[in-house]
Amino acid sequence: RRIAVMRGYTETHFGRRRFLTFESPRLLALRGQDPDAYTRSPMNDLTEFGTDQGKNDSDTLRQACSTRAQGTGADIMKRAMVALSRELAASGSNSHILLTVHDEL
C-alpha cells in the first residue's frame, strides 16, 4: 500500500501499471516520496478524514492491493490466449478460441 500511494500506481507481475487517484490531501502529499523512508501506514492516515473521503481512498488502496494478484492472473490469461491462438494458426487446425469463462479457455 505504501509503495502504491507514493508511486501513484501499482504493477502486475508483468509490469502493467494501474494508476491510482487519491482524494485526501495527506495521501496526495505522499506521492513522490521514498516508500522506504515513510514508516506510518497510509491506512492510519485515512482514519483522520471524513467517511466519504476515507471510503474512496480506502477503496483505491484495496484496488491497489488486488491489482497485483488479479491483474497478474488476467495477464497470464491474455498470454495464454495469444499463445493458443498462434499455435492453432500454425498447426493449420480449423479450431479457434470461442470464449473464456473465468480462467478457462
Note the overall shape. Answer: elongated
Averaged pLDDT: 83
Structural class designation: mainly alpha
Rg value: 19 Å
Q: From N to C, what is the helix and strand string?
A: HEEHHH
Proportion of strand residues: 5-15%
Largest sheet: 2 strands, antiparallel
The main sheet orders its strands as: 1-2
Number-wise, the strands total: 2
Separation of the first and last Cα atoms: 33 Å
Helix content: 55-70%
| Total helical segments | 4
Summarize the structure.
The chain has 105 residues and is mainly alpha-helical.
Structure description:
This protein has 105 residues and is mainly α. It has a domain at 2-73. Helix content is 55%, strand content 6%. It contains four helices and two strands, in the order αββααα. It has helices spanning 2-7, 25-30, 42-46, 51-91; strands at 9-11, 17-19. Strands 1-2 form a two-stranded antiparallel sheet. The longest helix is centred in the last third of the chain and has 41 residues, at 51-91. The protein is elongated and about 60 Å long. The model is unreliable at 48-52 (pLDDT under 50).
